[in-house]
Amino acid sequence: MRTALLLLILLALAAAGIHMAAPDMLSRYLPSVHNATPAMQAAPPLAPPSPWVCGVGRVEPASEEIDLAFEYSGIVADVLVHEADPVRRGQVVAQLKSDEHKARLDTALAEQEAMQAEYDKVVSGARQEEKSASWIVVQRMRTLMDNARTEMMRRQTLLHQQIIAPEELDRAVTEYKVAQREHEEAMQRHLVTLNLSRREDILMAHARLQASRSKVAEAQAALLSTQLRSPLDGTVLRRYRHPGENVSIFFPSPVLRVGDISTLNIRAEVDEADFNTVLPGQQAYFTCDAFGDKKFTGTVLRVTPMMGTKGLLTESPTERVDAKVIEVLIAADTPAGLVTGLIVDVFIDTSPQPSSGVFKSKVSVTSAPQE
C-alpha cells in the first residue's frame, strides 16, 4: 500500500514538472524571432489578404415581405386573391364576417337621427301649432278667472244683504284665486313657446348630437376594419388563411403575405470579423445551385448598424450557428429569374476603389473566390 502511494506521488510530481517545462521545450529547437536565419529572411512575403467577403443571403422584394392581418378577431368571410396575383395599393384582398358591425352602424345612425331631431327642436323652439294651442289655453283660463271674479263679487253683494252665509263668499273667493293662478300658469307656458330655448339646453343638445356622430364614425371605422387592404402595389407571395377560418389579435394570424417583386434585393449575413470592410456602393455578385455557374451582380445599398444572431443556415457540418453577423442589403442589377426566398452565396468586393469595369473582369478571372 505504501509502495502504491509513493508511486502516485512520484507520477504527480513528474506531471507537474512536465507541465511547467512544456512552454520552453519547443523554443529550444526553433530559431528566435529576433534572430532570424538567412533562409527565413530570404523567404518571400505572404500573399496579401483577399478583398472578397463571403456570406449567405436571401432574395427578398425591395419593399420587403409584408404580412397582412386584420385589426379584429373573427371569422374570415372571403379571401379575394390567390398566390402570384397582382394587387394594387388600397385594394380589398380579404374580408371578415361583418354582420355584427353592420348592426352596430345601423343603431348608431338611428341614434344620430334622433339626436339631430332633438337638436333642431331645441334650436327652432316651439311650432306654430304649439303656440296657438297654448294661447287658446290662456284665453280659456282668463274666461274662467273672469267668471270666478264675477261670482265672487255677486256673493259679496248677497252677503251684504244677508241673503247668504259667509261661507259661500269664502268659497267664491277661493275659486277666484285658483282661477287666477291657473291663468298665470297658462300665460307663462305660452311665453315659453314664444321665446327661444335657453343656451344651456342648446349646448346640451349639441353635445348629445356630437356624441352620436362620434359613435357613427366609430362604427364605420370598425366596419371598414373588417376589410383587409393591400398597403402597396405588388404581388401576393403567400396565402395563409381560407374562408371560414378563425383569426385573432391575441396571436399572430396573418392572412396574406405581399411584396413588390419588380425590384429584388439580397439580404446577406456577413461575419462580425469582416463587417468593417463592407461599405455602401461596393460591388458584389451572388450564385445559387439552381442557376449553376451563372453569376448575378449587384451593389451594396446599406449595412445595418446592429449585430445579430445568424438566421440563414446552410446546414453545413462545419457551420458556426452561434456566430454573430451583420446584415448587408444588396440591390440586384438583373433580377430576372430570381424568386423571393431563394438562398444564395454572396461575394462582396471590398477593394479600395471598386468600379464596374474592374469588377466584371474580377468576376471572370481565377482570382475570384471559388464557390
TrEMBL record:
Keywords: Coiled coil, Signal
Any one Pfam family match given in the protein's UniProt record, by short name: BSH_CzcB
Listed InterPro entries: BSH_CzcB-like, UPF0194_transport
Keyword match Translocase: no
GO CC terms of this entry: cell envelope
Gene3D superfamilies reported in the protein's UniProt record: 2.40.30.170, 2.40.50.100
Domain CzcB-like barrel-sandwich hybrid: 72-248
Chief place of localization: other
Record's signal peptide: 1-21
Subcellular location, record wording: Cell envelope
The UniProt record lists the keyword Coiled coil: yes
Alphabetical list of PANTHER family matching this protein: EFFLUX SYSTEM COMPONENT YKNX-RELATED
Protein name as catalogued: CzcB-like barrel-sandwich hybrid domain-containing protein
